[in-house]
Amino acid sequence: MTKPRIALIVGILCISIFPVLVRLSLTPGLISAFYRMAIASAVILPYVLITKQFKMPSTKIFMLASLCGVVFGLDVGVWNIAIQESSATQATLLTNLSPVWVGIGAFLFLKDKPLRNFWIGTVIALFGMVMLVGFNFFINLDFNLAFFFAILSGMLYAVYMLTSKFVLEETDVLTFMTISVVSSAIALGILSAIMKEPFSGFSNMGWFVLVIQGLVCQLLAWLLISYATKHMRATRVSVSLLGQAILASILAWIFLNETITLQMMIGGLILLFGIRVTFYTKNISLFRMRKKLKS
Q1: Rounded Cα gap, residues 283 and 281, in angstroms
Q2: pLDDT digits 0-9 by tens, 18-34
Q3: Does residue 85 contact residue 251 with C-beta atoms inside 8 Å?
């Protein structure tokens, strides 16, 4: 197993904690997103400046990295609100449509086009996701503001993945993460102030959860995921991130006493199989080589 894949797996483990923390509802959704970015910024910015690992990119790359931060910050804020205003199940499923948007965006804008196995694996993985959350879920699907927020979250995430893939080809991970997370914190801070969100008055547990979100779910997780994105296809990374739903369900079972059924376990296995299909390129490559030789 290569280093990027190991980084991706550990990164997914780190972000899997996030839905469980959000479900505790110890802080408002938007302000939770702000502190997630602000705490991460307070650690990474002094580190890269003191160690002189920040390398100022070109104006174009700096602006795109800043855009990534703003988009990702909005994604997290919108998703938090979607979870708290509807159900975690609905928000998680709709947000995880992002691989479809990433695949379409990669097909239209990236040189590295999605392969056939990506689309096959994505369909399988999404079917597994549907089984994981339960078919009965669709009967009670609410087409309200939270529904559209969850859809918007998936689209914002796709924009982030595609843009970050381009930026990471031109700069290093630490520089990208620093610009991205600081710009994200600034944008969310301004938005929180406009929306008159409370910046204080939380319980000790609430502050503890915010620190975990900033250090583990944001800083550590996305350093690792950004490293994986730099060295792997953006489409593969986006589908692999669906695996967080399985881990989040297990963590919710352990800490929130949520039930895990046989259907959920089968759905999880199908989801993992779909992710595996997106990584299977050996036979496709051999087929293409033989086809070229024959022609």
Answers
A1: 6
A2: 777 877 778 887 899 89
A3: no
For residue 218 the two structure tokens come to: 């944001």
**Taking the model in full, what pTM does it have?**
0.74
Cα separation, 128 vs 130, in Å, equals 5
Handedness of CA 26, 30, 31, 33 (dihedral sign): positive
Non-local CB neighbours of 247 within 8 Å, separated by 6+ positions: 12, 13, 16
Is residue 210 within 8 A of residue 222, CB to CB? The reply is: no
Neighbours of 73 (CB within 10 A): 27
Tell me the backbone φ, ψ of residue 105, rounded to 5 degrees. Answer: -65, -40
Distance CA 45, CA 125 (A): 37
Rounded to whole angstroms, the Cα distance separating 241 from 158 reads: 12
pLDDT above 90 covers a percentage of the chain that reads: 27
How far apart are the C-alpha atoms of 246 and 274, rounded to whole Å? 13
Q: What are phi and psi of 179, to 5 degrees?
A: -60, -45
The two three-digit tokens of residue 22, written as one number:
């959000």
Contacts with 207 (C-beta within 8 Å, 6 or more apart), sequence order: none
Report d(CA 142, CA 288) in Å as an integer.
45
The 10s digit of each residue's pLDDT in 230-252 is: 887 766 676 676 666 667 667 76
d(CA 241, CA 99): 9
CA-wise closest residue to 122 among 242, 29, 42, 13: 242
Rounded-to-integer distance, Cα 9 and Cα 240, Å: 8
Sign of CA dihedral 68, 194, 93, 146: negative
